[in-house]
Amino acid sequence: MNVTLTDEQWRTYEQQGYLKLGKVLSDLELVALAQRINHIMLGKADCDYDRFMMQREAGEGHEQSGQTVGFKGSTLNYRKIENLEFDSLFLLYLQKPLFREICEKVYGRDTRISCFRAMFMNKPARHGSVLPYHQDRWTDLDRDPLVTVWTALDPATIENGCVKIFPKTHRQLINPENPSGFLTPDQTNQLLGTMEPVNLELEEGEAVLLNNWTVHGSEGNKSDFSRRAFSVCYMDANTVSSAGKSFSVVFGSGALQADFYINKEVKAN
């Protein structure tokens, strides 16, 4: 597993707007995180559900729910769960030294780092929403977050809706008027007319580093297997939200601290 990035890897990332990081989870960590998120979805986790933003996917006789605080029933059919920096296992993972190095390279060595969102994303078997092409940005922030680390908890394949990207699209905003960075149908068709998207197929435990402006999206899940993933968007902790939202510091002074070790959680379950 990589513990640092080479100069060549950085050049590739800067040129392409993405970089496959390879396997970043040990077998023990992968089992623990996959087990932990299932327990959270099933309501079996000893955690504060009032801290999590949770969205249930359509299916099992339910429509897709809104993404709001709190538990929405015992099911593996969740689409998103946010604020996972408040779960010790996921916090331990997102604070890996490799990710700190990435943040120092992008934001500067002495910059405190927050996470804009630490989010579980799921495409349940034979379900899973289509995510239209977009660039990650939020106009209520006084500066754009720059990097995201996307980690596969299941194999991510074309059949189950892996992320698709357009390399080198990170150099400018395509639709700056849209507050969430989504492309118009005409802009999407124009891109598709000039290049083929890259399918980011990953084995479980592998991760990819994404520039937030790199255009990406995904299809639904046509397979009998889930596509679970964990995504962390890192940003300068000095970022201010016009809505007054606060963000958790994960690197630097005042950073969140995990309250147990990963082997303890595995033994407990």
From TrEMBL:
Which superkingdom is the protein from?
Bacteria
Tell me the first and last residues of the signal peptide. Answer: none
**InterPro entries annotated for this entry?**
Phytyl_CoA_dOase-like (IPR008775)
Is this entry keyworded Oxidoreductase?
A: yes
Give the source species: Paenibacillus gyeongsangnamensis
Family annotation (Gene3D superfamilies): q2cbj1_9rhob like domain
GO MF: dioxygenase activity
Q: Does the keyword Oxidoreductase apply?
A: yes
Q: Which UniProt keywords apply?
A: Dioxygenase, Oxidoreductase
Name used for this protein in its record: Phytanoyl-CoA dioxygenase family protein
